[in-house]
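hey so i finally got around to running the thing on that chain from the lab meeting. sorry it took forever, my laptop kept dying and i had to restart like 3 times. anyway pasting the input first so we r on the same page abt which one it is
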Amino acid sequence: MGTTVKVGMADLNLCKSPDMITTIGLGSCIGIALYDPVKKIGGLAHIMLPDSTQMKNNQNIAKFADTGIEELVKRMVAAGASKSRLVAKIAGGAKMFEVSAGSSIGNIGARNAEASKKKLRELGIPLKAEDTGLNYGRTVELYTETGEFRIKSVGKTLKIL
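ok and heres what got predicted. didnt touch it at all, straight out
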């Protein structure tokens, strides 16, 4: 087992086999794992919001689905991954709070998940698995040796995607 690389909220990073990359506390946020199975390079972004174009102050590209996924792909290719081999797995996007109908904060989790999927489609990266929605937080781990994406939640069975 290699090193564990931690990704914070509104952050992204990558690692190579045998390392593992993780992010904790995904509520309405989305954890997007990208993986090149040949080079065994994995990347993970912790996305908080769906769309950077809706914000005036959007210097943090990792915070948004549109810019964060693009940046993660760019860094992985620079590290030796092939864009044509990348596959994606996502988790998170929970509805953590009940809010009044019609509120724009409404279901930010579902909007994050949809924006992430849309960006992956635009970039031609296949989404191989997802564990999104519902109403609980998740911690995710991407193992670069195998491409295994583990999802841990309090009081829930470990999921392996």
